[in-house]
Amino acid sequence: MNSARLPLVVDLDGTLIQTDLLAETASRFLIEQPWRFWRLLAWLAQGKCALKLRLAEATRVDVASLPYNEELLTWLRQQKAQGCTLILATASHRILAKQVTEYLGGLFDDVLATDGNNNLKANAKRDALVSRYGEGGFDYVGNDWPDLPVWQSAAKVHIVSTSSRLIERARAQGKVGVTMGDGKALPAAALFKAMRPHQWMKNLLVFIPLMAAHRYSDVTSVLQALLAFVVFGLTASSVYLLNDLVDVTDDRHHPRKQHRPFAAGHLGLLHGWLAWPVLLALALTLADLGLPWQFTASLATYFVLTVAYSLRLKQVPIIDVLTLAGLYTMRIIAGAAAVAVPLSFWLLSFSMFLFLSLAFIKRYIELHLASETNQGGTLRGRGYNPQDLALVSSLGGSAGYTAVLVLALYIQDSRTASLYATPTIIWLACPLLLFWISRTWLIASRGQMYDDPIVFALKDRASWVVAALFALVFILAKVVQ
């Protein structure tokens, strides 16, 4: 039999798409109905076929946004144009497999998938294909170790993987045809990227109460603040993982966020569901061992508020930016609890207005991008429309200037005079802050800011200069008589 005319059978999970539909549906179910998580265990007790059926019926997968292997799709279309019969054979449930084939148009001629009591994976898939086409009566495209039995019975082996061990085993079992990459990164590297360690810079806010109280020469307080920084970083990374799991569908529709590890399929969703609770547990353990209970309470509040933001609050206009500002301010509250210093009314007011302005910038960037790309209607996962652009800009700029006003009023406070030798020098910080806020909004309005404003500031030389001068002003106010 001429292998060129044999049916070409293609695996779905990890091969045609760079994700797994069982993980996708389970993740979506947990996000949409977390209070019914126990049902996953009940369905699994009935067998994998039952689990896949129930999840396929209980959730909706946006098949158009799935991370397809474009290199493989291009090759398959070439084979189709040459008259080859294409068959999709997958361990995913038939309901989902049919949705994928319908989205891809007439690319596939038939579908074999999990149905009834037959979980179409490994030996079961091989038996089904041999029963239909005979031993050596088909070519097969796969990507993982469970595909080895199928490759053993195929006439030609096509591999979608970068695993040298897997490729070597496949070569030992059959004639290898095409080999291409699966687009996946090393799980550890992808997980580290998803944790966004660069965002830990935001947690430097926990040091502000220490600095504001002039306790920077107290070694114990400094060590407490350092531990608080690490604990907040672990918690924030846990939150970023959970947030990306929640947002994975919306991220796949975003021009930049679609490259995040979960959205792009570089990191399995299961890795995320295992990793975020571990990071959170580690953070809470360290906090319990080395920091006051008030800090742990602040940390727990931060986490709960962040989860609420990820699941719902980010979709509610104005509430979303107030929540973001509150999350930044929670870092300062936690920092004060870590070193046991009283919270300053002026510091809390200043931070709330400043971070509210930065939160509005985040929304402004998203709206500006939607306006430039002519996206109508409400933004995916948000509660704003492109026509809200002017209002968001106005509210955000006003909040930033109010933060400058709070700073100016702080200079006149009687307690300020007891902390600084010459508090009037702090007036120089006002024009610096006015410049930075105005410049940041100007850059955002020109469409030249593509990141979170905090991330932008960390990469921006002018922001570093302003920060250095800002710190210098407070140092001079402290030491100059």
Annotation, overall tally of beta strands: 6
The gyration radius over C-alpha positions equals 28 Å
Number of separate structural domains: 3
Oligomer: single chain
Reported by name, the CATH topology of the largest domain is Rossmann fold
**Average pLDDT rating:** 90
Q: Using the 3D structure, state the CATH architecture of the largest domain.
A: 3-Layer(aba) Sandwich
Overall geometric form: elongated
Helix content: 55-70%
**How does the major sheet shape up?**
6 strands, parallel
In the sheet with the most strands, the strands line up as 3-2-1-4-5-6
Structural class: alpha/beta
Q: Helical stretch count? A: 22
Terminal Cα span? 96 Å
Task: Please mark out the parts with pLDDT under 50 across 5 or more consecutive residues, or reply none.
Answer: none
Task: State which percent range the strand residues make up.
Answer: 5-15%
Please provide the ordered H/E string of secondary-structure elements: EHHHHEHEHEHEHEHHHHHHHHHHHHHH
Would you identify the CATH H-level superfamily of the largest domain? HAD superfamily/HAD-like
Fold topology:
Blueprint: E1 8-10, H1 21-32, H2 38-45, H3 48-58, H4 70-81, E2 86-93, H5 94-103, E3 110-114, H6 123-133, E4 139-142, H7 148-153, E5 156-160, H8 164-173, E6 175-180, H9 187-194, H10 208-212, H11 219-246, H12 248-251, H13 261-264, H14 269-290, H15 293-311, H16 319-338, H17 345-372, H18 389-411, H19 414-419, H20 429-445, H21 453-459, H22 461-479
Parallel strand pairs: 1-2, 1-4, 2-3, 4-5, 5-6
Helix pairs in contact: 1-3, 2-3, 11-14, 11-15, 11-16, 15-16, 16-17, 17-18, 17-20, 18-20, 20-22
